[in-house]
Design goal:
The protein is an all-alpha fold. It is built from 19 helices and no strands. The longest helix is centred in the middle third of the chain and has 18 residues. The relative contact order is 0.08.
Length: about 400
């Protein structure tokens, strides 16, 4: 006979409910995909008041299906969404609307490149070429660069030179705008440097400067025009890669004495030169005013300190990253962590590039900060670009 009180071994236990009436399970809170959890909310709790409101992620289901949305998704690093919407818009755009189709093709190709779908991107940009018409500059430039992404850097350089020649008329006047010409020259130099052809990159850069100096007069462009001065800093960085620290230093001082206006880039390049000579403390002093931490001292380790946001966020993130590296080599590990975390809090979409993530992971591992590493993984999963998330997975950072 069953014991109705459930007495077992001299003790009492609550009688189990009959099988026909199971106890209702407590309701589970369902988190919307991409919604920050408690750790992420705490991480961003001390954001500066003037920071951009980037914590509310866009809901693709409520956004208008247009080209502006595609551009916004690309800016946020959501390349899979951008690619999906670009394909949808291409399918519904009239074949007669050539201009819109080319812009959408460019956005789709860029999304494929950032997702490492290089062959699909190549098929797009090659197929977009219409005989007897001129392509937009950005599409022509991407068509040249695809070879680099497919592993043929030399072919990319050759195509870039061909594009430059194509943009020059028989009278020697450039058919591209000044901004487009500068961008094209920068890409040529950049790919030469990536390919290790540093001497050739220097030769081309100096040749461009000499050619402009010959054409310059008091009514057009002075020898020390903005473009000329910017190239001085580029030349200094190439000399640093070669190992000519003295030559790089002379060029930087020439830039400064000629009135170069980009103070952030100047400070960044000076710090790189000091870092090459292992003068990390001096580099920190140069970068400190541009990092602009509120109330930071050399021994500060407060996680709530914030970065102000300058106009050029990409350059600023590189500057902050190098500042943190200098802090690490100066045995200021907690300050390095503070600075990088502050950059991520201020603008996660811009700051979560692979270099910053790798350095933060290395610092967390060095300090055995496993929980912070877990929080960073969650932050990257929500706010990181699709290409960055894939790269973290390939490198097994977590």
């Amino acid at each position: 006979m069953a014991d109705p009180l459930g007495v077992v071994g001299g003790g009492f236990k609550t009688a189990s409910p009959p099988p026909s009436s199971p106890a209702p399970a407590p309701p589970k809170h369902k988190k919307r995909p991409g919604q920050p959890d408690r750790d992420v909310i705490i991480f961003f709790a001390d954001r500066p008041r003037d920071a951009k409101p980037v914590l509310d992620l866009p809901d693709i289901n409520t956004l208008p299906e247009n080209q502006q949305t595609v551009e916004m998704l690309i800016d946020c690093g959501k390349f899979r969404m951008a690619a999906s919407l670009s394909r949808l818009l291409l399918d519904t755009t009239s074949l007669q609307d050539v201009s819109k189709r080319r812009k959408l093709t460019f956005h789709l190709a860029i999304s494929y490149v950032r997702l490492h779908k290089f062959r699909e991107a190549k098929e797009l940009v090659v197929g977009a070429k219409v005989k007897g018409t001129s392509d937009p500059f950005n599409l022509s430039l991407l068509r040249c660069e695809i070879s680099h992404y497919l592993g043929d850097n030399e072919e990319a350089v050759r195509k870039l030179f061909a594009l430059k020649h194509q943009l020059m008329s028989k009278q020697g006047e450039c058919l591209a705008s000044g901004r487009e010409l500068r961008l094209l020259n920068e890409r040529i130099i950049s790919y030469l440097v990536l390919g290790g052809r540093l001497e050739l990159a220097l030769e081309i850069l100096r040749g461009e400067q000499a050619e402009r100096a010959k054409k310059a007069d008091s009514n057009t462009e002075s020898k020390f025009g903005d473009m000329f001065l910017t190239e001085k800093l580029t030349e200094a960085k190439i000399l640093l890669k070669i190992g000519d620290v003295k030559g790089a230093h002379e060029l930087v001082e020439e830039y400064a004495s000629a009135g170069g206006a980009d103070a952030v880039e100047l400070a960044h390049t000076r710090a790189l030169i000091l870092t090459a000579d292992s003068h990390f403390e001096q580099a920190i002093k140069i970068l400190q005013p541009y990092v602009e931490l509120h109330g930071v001292t050399d021994n500060a380790d407060s996680p709530g300190l914030m970065l102000k946001t300058p106009q050029d966020r990409a350059l600023h993130v590189d500057l902050v990253n190098n500042y943190a590296v200098c802090c690490l080599f100066s045995n200021k590990i907690h300050l390095a962590i503070t600075v990088l975390e502050a950059a991520v809090r201020t603008d996660p979409f811009q700051s979560l590039n692979l270099k910053v993530i790798q350095n933060l992971v290395a610092l967390y591992d060095l300090c055995s900060m496993l929980h912070s590493k877990t929080v960073l993984r969650k932050v990257v999963g929500i706010y990181g670009g699709d290409d960055v998330i894939d790269a973290c997975r390939r490198l097994n950072l977590w």
